[in-house]
Design brief:
Helix 9 runs parallel beside helix 11, helix 17 crosses helix 20 and helix 19 runs antiparallel to helix 20. By secondary structure, the protein is mostly helical. The longest helix has 24 residues.
Length: 386
C-alpha cells in the first residue's frame, strides 16, 4: 500500500472510530459487533501509527462500550430483543470470547497509570453483585480478569496486575459472605483457577491460602438448583486440580486445609446421591452425579501420585466416606464410582492407618469398612499388587 493511501485511510480514522462506537451501542447483529471488535484490536496493535488520528479519549470510550456490551450479554443472554442475530455467522459464545479478548487488549494498550485506574474500576464493579440482582457487572469484571491472565505484559504491568490480584483475592472473601449468587461464585472460582494456573512464580502461599478459604463460603449442599450444583462442583474440582498441578509445594505444606475441601466435595455428592433424598433423582440427575463422583475419582488418582505427603491423611477421608454412607443408601452407580476412589485412598493408607480405623469406627461403620477393606485386598491380590 502506497504511503499516500495509508495517510488517506488514517485521516478517515476518526469517522471510522465514531461509527465503531455507535455500532457497539446500537448494533443488532453479531457479525457487525465482531467486525467492530476486529477494528479495535487492529487499532490497538498499531497504536504508534494510529494514536494521533484517534478521537479524544477513544480508548476509554471503547473500553466502556465493550464492557457495557459484555454486561448486556451476560445479563440477558442476548443483546437483542429480536431474532435478527439469528442471521449472524458468529454466535453468542464467540462474541463473548471476542469481547473479553478485545477488552484485555485495550487494557494492556493503556499507559500504566490508566491501566491501574481501570483495574480499580473493575474491582469496584465486582462489588456491584451486593446491590444488583442480576450480578452481570460483577461477572463481567471477573471474566475480564480471567482474560488478562492470558495476555503478555511488560514487567511494570505484570507487577501492577499481581498487586491488583492480591486485592481481588482478599475482596472475594468478603464478597461471598454477602452474595451467594451461583454465577458470581462460579466466576470467582474460575478466576482463582486461572490465577493458580499461572504457576508458583505468580501467587504467594498467602494468596493461595485465600483461594482455599473461599470454599468456606461455598455451600454446595444448600444449592437449590441441581444444575447449579453440578456447575459449582465442577469448578470447585477444577480449583483443587489446578492447585495440585501448578502449586504442588503449596499443597504439600497445606494438606489439612486442602483435605477439608476434598471432604466437602465428597459429602456433597453423597448427600445428593442418597435414595431417600428429598429431591427425587431422575436418570439424567444420576448421570450428572456420577460425573461428579468420577471427578472425585480422578482427583484421588492425582493425589495418590503424592503418596508420601497424603499417606497420613488417607484414613480421615476413608472415615468420612464410611461415616456418611451410614446415613442412607446411595444410588448404586454413584456408590460404585466412589468406592473405586476409596480403593485408591486405601492403596496409600498404611497398615497403622487401616488398623486405627478399625478401632475408632462405631460398630455399623466398622462393618462397612471391613467389607470395603476385604474387597480391596481381594482385588489387590487378584491383580498381584498386595
Amino acid at each position: 500500500m502506497a504511503s499516500e493511501e495509508l495517510d488517506d485511510m488514517l485521516k478517515n480514522l476518526p469517522d471510522l472510530c465514531r461509527i465503531c462506537l455507535k455500532c457497539l451501542q446500537h448494533s443488532v447483529n453479531y457479525d457487525v459487533l465482531n467486525r467492530c471488535l476486529e477494528f479495535v484490536v487492529a487499532i490497538c496493535s498499531r497504536l504508534n501509527s494510529t494514536a494521533k488520528f484517534l478521537p479524544d479519549d477513544f480508548l476509554h470510550k471503547i473500553w466502556n462500550g465493550t464492557v457495557d456490551v459484555l454486561c448486556r450479554l451476560i445479563r440477558s443472554h442476548s443483546i437483542l430483543n429480536s431474532d435478527s442475530h439469528l442471521d449472524s455467522t458468529v454466535g453468542r459464545t464467540e462474541i463473548i470470547s471476542a469481547l473479553r479478548k478485545t477488552i484485555a487488549t485495550i487494557a494492556v494498550t493503556f499507559k500504566l497509570d490508566e491501566f491501574e485506574e481501570h483495574l480499580k474500576l473493575l474491582q469496584s464493579n465486582m462489588k456491584s453483585c451486593l446491590f444488583d440482582r442480576d450480578c452481570a457487572t460483577s461477572i463481567a469484571a471477573f471474566q475480564i480478569i480471567q482474560e488478562l491472565t492470558t495476555h503478555s505484559m511488560n514487567d511494570e504491568f505484570q507487577n501492577s496486575f499481581y498487586l491488583y490480584c492480591q486485592k481481588v483475592l482478599v475482596l472475594v472473601q468478603n464478597l461471598l459472605v454477602g452474595c451467594q449468587s451461583v454465577p458470581v461464585v462460579v466466576a470467582v472460582l474460575e478466576t482463582e483457577r486461572k490465577l493458580i494456573s499461572l504457576g508458583p512464580n505468580f501467587l504467594e502461599s498467602s494468596d493461595l491460602s485465600l483461594c482455599l478459604s473461599t470454599f468456606s463460603e461455598v455451600d454446595l449442599e444448600s444449592v437449590s438448583c441441581f444444575n447449579d450444583f453440578v456447575v459449582l462442583f465442577n469448578e470447585s474440582y477444577a480449583v483443587l486440580n489446578a492447585l495440585l498441578l501448578h502449586q504442588m509445594n503449596f499443597v504439600h505444606n497445606s494438606i489439612p486445609a486442602y483435605m477439608v475441601v476434598v471432604k466437602k466435595l465428597l459429602r456433597a455428592v453423597m448427600s445428593l446421591s442418597r435414595q431417600d433424598h428429598e429431591r427425587k433423582l431422575n436418570q439424567a440427575d444420576v448421570k450428572k452425579l456420577d460425573s461428579c463422583a468420577h471427578l472425585i475419582y480422578r482427583l484421588t488418582g492425582l493425589v495418590c501420585e503424592h503418596k508420601i505427603h497424603f499417606t497420613k491423611v488417607a484414613p480421615f477421608l476413608i472415615y468420612e466416606y464410611v461415616s456418611e454412607v451410614q446415613k442412607g443408601t446411595l444410588c448404586l452407580v454413584v456408590k460404585t464410582t466412589l468406592v473405586m476412589a476409596i480403593y485408591k485412598w486405601l492403596s496409600i493408607c498404611s497398615n497403622y492407618g487401616t488398623n486405627h480405623l478399625i478401632h475408632i469406627l462405631p460398630p455399623g461403620a466398622k462393618e462397612t469398612f471391613r467389607f470395603i477393606l476385604e474387597e480391596f485386598e481381594r482385588r489387590a491380590k487378584y491383580k498381584g499388587t498386595s
